[in-house]
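Q: Got a minute? One more chain.
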Amino acid sequence: MNATDLAALIEDPARAVGLPQPEAVRLLLELAPVQEALRVAAARSPSANGQRPEPEEWLDAAGVADRLGISLKAVYARSGLPWSPALGRTRRMAASDLDDYVRGKRR
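A: Always. Here it is, folded:
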């Protein structure tokens, strides 16, 4: 069996049992990069339109103040904002979480 017979092995995997050991090793080595690439592709989160999702926008306190049209002092005074866990002294908020928070407050 040669490399052009991979389609036959895909159709009937039981045929692989009859391969000579060197041929089986060669095919495994040939397929390993493809298998890993497929694993990576399968692990990605699909989006609704089949395109890669846009990276999340992260806001600091000044960005939240700007987006809400309030002062920085008001941002710090407001409780219940969906901040992410702090990394050191920096707190950030996903823009989508802020949008969800605002929509929830308007109901």
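A: The chain has a mean pLDDT of 81.
Q: Perfect, thanks.
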